[in-house]
Amino acid sequence: MTGPGPEQVSARLGATARSWFHRALAEASPATGTGPGPGTPGPTPAWQHRFASAGRACGAEFALDVRLALLVRARPSPATLARLYRHGARGERQAVLTALPLLAPPPDTGLLLVEDALRTNDTDLLAAALGEYAAAHLAPHLWRHAVLKCLFHETPVTVVAGLRRRARGDSELGRMLSAYAEERVAAGRPLPPDLTFVLALTLLPKE
């Protein structure tokens, strides 16, 4: 499970924010929150406006969990999920990425969002993109570069779901990490804290 459930989120909110959240959940229910079908013009469902304004209504501390609850309740189509990401601010994108394992969109949609996040230098988006969805679907070449990017930004590799399974016995990842380490040493720069750990994984036999 990614994030707390709606009841847990609700219990942490103040009275005004809790009332707002309950209305948002009701609007996100499939019976009321589906909106027009694909390609059909019509108003944007109310829950999507609330998805965007969650930070203002509930506070930045709770915005991610509130948005996750709305996405899980609404179960948006892949096209809607992609639109929420493409047109969303940083916090909205983080929520979409974090929800991917729960919503399980087809890879031709979900991976486009993951790959877009991996091209940024935003460490929160990078961490959100490297959850269980990426562990299951991201191609080896892109996954290896994502791990290297975590090390470059000194993002803890604990954010990389499935790291032990995918890195174990991966000689190509080991080669990339060794080359990166040599570059750092040659430049007189310290090695990232997690590099030795990941490199050791690549030396283990595949299970």
**Terminal CA distance:** 26 Å
Shape: elongated
Sheet having the most strands: none
Give unreliable regions as ranges.
none
Helix content: 55-70%
Q: Structural class, judged by helices and strands?
A: mainly alpha
Strand-and-helix sequence, N→C? HHHHHHHHHHHHHH
Provide the residue-averaged pLDDT. 93
Residue share in β-strands: under 5%
Please explain how this structure is put together:
With 207 residues, this protein is an all-alpha fold. Helices cover 70% and strands 0% of the residues. It contains 14 helices and no strands. Helix 2 packs antiparallel against helix 4, helix 5 packs across helix 7 and helix 6 packs antiparallel against helix 7. The longest helix has 16 residues. The mean pLDDT is 93.
Features:
elongated, mainly alpha, 207 residues
Summarize the structure.
The chain has 207 residues and is an all-alpha fold. It contains 14 helices and no strands.
